[in-house]
Amino acid sequence: MKTNIGVIDRTLRIVIGLLLIAWAIPIGFPPMDYNWIGWVGIIPLGTAIIGFCPLYGLLNMTTNGRPGAHA
Q: N or C: which end of the chain has fewer CB within 10 A?
């Protein structure tokens, strides 16, 4: 499993993941019925941490700018 996520992509995934998770935790806000959707933020956060996106792997894509980085 080689890295297929670039720096900008990884940064965006971290920000989006953290924002979604923060939205899922109702601190100071009244709880909503659809807050659970925010826990989907674990997926982009996890892929950013490991540096590999399974979907990119299936599509033979990479955003890290290194040719041949995708296996």
A: N
Number of domains in the chain: 1
Three-class secondary structure of residue 1 per DSSP:
coil
- Sorting pLDDT into bands at 50, 70 and 90, what band is 65? confident
Range of the domain at 52: 7-58
Confirm whether 68 is domain-assigned. Answer: no
Q: Is the pLDDT of residue 68 over 60?
A: no
In eight-state DSSP terms, residue 28 is: S
The C-alpha angle 38, 23, 48, rounded to 5 degrees, equals 60
Would residue 41 count as lying in a domain? yes
Share of the chain above pLDDT 70, in %: 87
User: How many CB atoms are located within 10 Å of the residue 46 CB?
Assistant: 13
